[in-house]
Write a structure and sequence with these properties.
Blueprint (H helix, E strand, L loop, with lengths): L4 H4 L5 H8 L7 E5 L7 H7 L3 E4 L3 H13 L4 E4 L3 H9 L4 H20 L5 E5 L9 E4 L4 H4 L4 E5 L2 E5 L3 H12 L3 E5 H7 L7 H6 L3 E5 L3 E4 L20 H4 L3 E5 L1
Parallel strand pairs: 1-2, 1-3, 5-10
Antiparallel strand pairs: 4-11, 6-7, 7-9, 8-9
Helix pairs in contact: 4-6, 5-6
């Protein structure tokens, strides 16, 4: 895209904030991830300043995280995305997803055995997932495409860019009814769901936002890559299934 991730996401990361307060501590903060993701745009946006450690398999990352902490590291962030990947490809109610969860469970059991004493283990996720039972296509639905200049976001969290936000929001509310939460940008910001909103974030957000309820998905086939297929599992909306995630803490 030509965008610099560090300009697009200018807020200092936790590693940068800690390094500013305690120079030299960044070397004790590790991010253990897929080697292919080291130096990627998303990594630079979210994890710059952390010591990058690459491991392709879950067991590799478990051993790398434990060794980093045993050798003087103060904090290790270990990311494993296969549960998410299986959910997108096969669905969050599939056998494949369950198998990925069992693999993760085994990896966490191994990690608990390898961690040095007095380590606080925090296990969490970034979102839940829904398998859609209905998809509405903006490209073939005039009531939804009228007045929309650009469709973006995700199936469950649509961002619409338009010069007629009030009119577009009204048409989407009339068509979708109780199946979606529809907000203009200003309405969404006013709810507080995004917390403090910077000028840059306000500019990037859609003029109208649609969050789907139940198992509804809203897509735009006219803006999909040729040959692209829909994911079985998706996320991004405000339902409890997508918003409520586990947070488990254990002192080893």
């Amino acid at each position: 895209s030509g965008l610099d991730p560090e300009e697009w996401q200018p807020v200092p990361t936790w590693a940068q904030r800690l390094e500013a307060a305690r120079p030299g501590i960044a070397k004790q903060l590790g991010a253990i991830q897929d080697p292919d993701h080291i130096g990627s745009g998303l990594t630079r946006a979210a994890w710059r300043g952390f010591t990058a450690i690459g491991g392709p398999a879950l067991d590799d990352r478990v051993h790398l995280a434990a060794r980093f902490l045993r050798e003087g590291g103060r904090f290790a962030y270990l990311y494993w995305g296969e549960v998410d990947h299986r959910g997108h490809r096969w669905g969050a109610t599939s056998e494949e997803w369950t198998m990925a969860l069992e693999d993760l469970d085994a990896g966490i059991r191994l990690l608990t055995r390898l961690l040095p004493p007095d380590t606080l283990l925090v296990l969490t996720a970034d979102h839940g997932m829904v398998d859609p039972s209905e998809r509405i296509d903006v490209a073939t639905t005039p009531a939804l495409s009228e007045g929309v200049d650009l469709y973006s976001g995700e199936e469950r969290a649509v961002h619409l860019y338009t010069r007629q936000p009030e009119a577009v929001a009204a048409r989407w509310r009339d068509y979708l009814g109780e199946r979606s939460w529809i907000y203009t940008k200003e309405e969404a910001i006013a709810t507080g769901m995004f917390g403090p909103v910077t000028a840059q974030a306000r500019e990037a957000m859609g003029d109208v936002l649609a969050f789907q309820r139940g198992r509804l998905s809203v897509v735009h086939t006219g803006q999909m890559q040729p040959g692209a297929t829909f994911m079985r599992g998706v996320h991004g909306s405000l339902t409890p299934t997508e918003m409520l995630i586990p947070l488990l803490l254990e002192l080893r």
